[in-house]
Amino acid sequence: MKKRNVTIWMTAAVVVLYLASPPLMADVYFKDGQIHNIDYKIKDDVKVDIWAPGMHTTVNLFDGGEVAGLSGYEDSHLNILGGLVGTWLTARYRSQVDISGGSIRHGLIAYGNSHVDISGGLVGDELIAWPSSVLTIYGSDFAVDGKGVGYGKLTSILGGYYGDEPRRHLTGILLSGDLIHSNFYIGQDAKISLTPVPEPSTLLLLGLGVLAIRRRY
Hints:
The protein has about 220 residues and is α/β, with parallel strands linked by helices. It has helices spanning about 1-20, 200-215, and strands at about 25-30, 35-40, 40-50, 60, 65-70, 75-80, 85, 90, 95-105, 105-110, 115-120, 125-130, 135-145, 145-150, 150-155, 170-175, 180-185, 190-195.
């Protein structure tokens, strides 16, 4: 009898633990054509303009902000200025992403005529670009698999699905001074554009030129 009582108690304990388990994650949607600033924690994935073409919703992620994952769809605009994306950042179907700060834990994916500009921040372990998308990376001292490549465009090797591409590794110094240290895969006609940062003297001359134009008018 004692053995039977112990068995019943353990079964009840399992049932209690099961009922106390946390609920499954859900998605948070922004698709109203407005500007949304995230400087707080969202435990779920955030999806912007999903099934809402033409809305042009903007989401800004600031310091103090945290999302599980972040995906932009259909002409949306994502600005990563700080904060944390806990898994992947994804740009889909003509969306625009600008990354100048913050941290993306796993990496980013761009496809479907999307554009991603990277000038700072920590962009994770993997960069993936495929069908008609462009990743533009602003910085210096770029190297692929340890070999300096200067500037220009990196393209697909095999021309097909990105998952069939050999893994390549990109290093360099971003405009912000952050380091990039990521594997990358490029599929079909997508591109990764390595763009130089102007020298300080060049920036000074550009600034003086703008001042001269303003004074003239």
